[in-house]
Amino acid sequence: TPPPSCPALCRASTPRRCGFVRQQTRNVTAWMAGTRPAMTVESPSTDETSVHAVTIAGKRSADTRGANIPFDLNALFAGLETAPGLLLAVSGGPDSIALMLLAAQWAELAGHAAPRLHVATVDHGLRAEARAEAEAVAAAAAKLGLPHVVLTWTGPKPKTRIQERAREARYALLAAHAQGIGATHVVTGHHADDQAETILFRLGRGSGPGGLVGMKRESAVAPGIVLARPLLGLAKAQLIGICEEAGHAFADDPSNHDPSYARVRLRAARDALARLGLETPTLVRLGARLARAEDALEAETRRCLTLAEAAWETGRFTAKLAPLEDAKPEILIRLLRHALEGLNPGGKPPRLDRLETLAENLGASLRAGTALRATLHGTCVTFSRDTRLVIAPEPPRRRGRAGKGPDSAPNREANPKTS
What stretches of 124-197 adopt beta strand conformation (E)? Predict the structure, then answer.
């Protein structure tokens, strides 16, 4: 078990081998003052035998057990160096404060070649302390020479699903500000423990392989704006250590301790989950392995879309499924999902269970040579005996009769019409 002084599930057996306790973060204060000594922070193990190392000052470093797996700040922020501007989302908590410190040092080392860094703090208007925390971030950003803005979520606040809706509002505000300042990326401080919680949370909701991959390093958050998460390989304890060694204060959001939120309950169960083997490195490794499987399944789906001569034409999707008679159900599920995404880019995805039901019926009709008609997620799905698949939006009259949205009718997919 980790030593008592270590809050990380780092799987180290002694303080000497613990990435949080080791004296590899002691030079951060001097580093922030400009002397730039090397500082190494170990990230969660990606397998049973190696611990990766991150070299904050940009020099190469090996891990404590002799494996030569070096990282540096350029590796940490890889892929972001060509962006014209980056908007750092900094709430004032330890994760985002560490992100700001690391990004500032990375930009300083890169000099004129670095992207322009901007900082934004979102005040959701839900806590009285939020404005003071935002002002503290503004002061910290100013010391680093970074422009800062406070973005405020105005208007009435929802009474249910508050964290989910606050997150949606936060990303909308950040994306809009990024567009306004010419930044192409919103950068967050999500870390390995967040990734593990995301995977557990989605597992509890019955997500498929794509969901259990967890958060991606980069994903679209708005047209032309990428959400980047460069710290997914680092544990929260390491980010806290960076702040503490730099002598930098950080805020503690009370909602992070409110058991009415599912993620807080997951964190409270961390020790029990670790005893069952569901610790952060294991869950992160699971996500990485599922990501490989997801890439393979998506490649096969794209190949099948090409075989089926799939096309999106002025509001409808067409494909010839004869070459896919032996396709596995998972591929048909993904084919349907791609078809719907192409008809409504950026829209809310259909429920997985309804995709599964329709794909099962579609596969049965394809093998039996029968026709099928069904509805899914606001669309009409028509499969004819000549294996032609057409998906188009439902007529307005039928939508109005349903009255509760595209996935409201309970038996639409369960009882499709066949002939």
Answer: 148-152, 185-187
